[in-house]
Amino acid sequence: MPNSSKKILLVEDDPELLDVMTTKLSLSGLEFAVAETGRQALDYISQNPPALILLDILLPDIDGLTILSELVKKEETKAIPVIILSNLADQASMEQAAAIGPYEYLVKTKTDLNELIKKIKGKIGAE
């Protein structure tokens, strides 16, 4: 069974952003898996808990906040670091995420991908 200790799960349904993100993660030498729906994300996490999750809030089925709520319920997933990457820049969404746990919340349009990669590497110890 492959060691998923440094693997990142990218949860994103926007095809263009997904393309940009997967290219950036690949070029950075990071191992990752992709989920395009909340259901895919939850299934993946239950089978292969990743080192970190990059999570979109607006997904076609189960939203990111619900995924966060599911993660904190389980002993084996509640400690997984999550970076929320969303276009929802409103205070209410940020507060909802903060109420669930101490997650980093980044707005897609204001996030530099090089900085994001540095944050990811820092959180998973892959300097």
What report would you give on this structure?
The structure is a single chain. This protein is an alpha/beta fold. It has 5 helices and 5 strands, in the order βαβαβαβαβα. It has helices at residues 15-27, 38-47, 64-73, 91-100, 113-124, and strands at residues 8-11, 32-35, 52-55, 82-86, 104-107. Strands 2-1-3-4-5 form a 5-stranded parallel β-sheet, with helices on both faces. The model has no long low-confidence stretch (mean pLDDT 92).
From the structure above, extract its key features.
globular; Rossmann fold; alpha/beta; 127 residues; 5-stranded parallel β-sheet; phosphoprotein; Sig_transdc_resp-reg_receiver; single chain
Give a short overview.
The chain is an alpha/beta fold. Helices cover 43% and strands 17% of the residues. It is globular.
Helix content: 40-55%
Shape: globular
Tell me the distance between the termini.
24 Å
Structural class: alpha/beta
Radius of gyration: 13 Å
CATH superfamily: Response regulator
Low-confidence segments: none
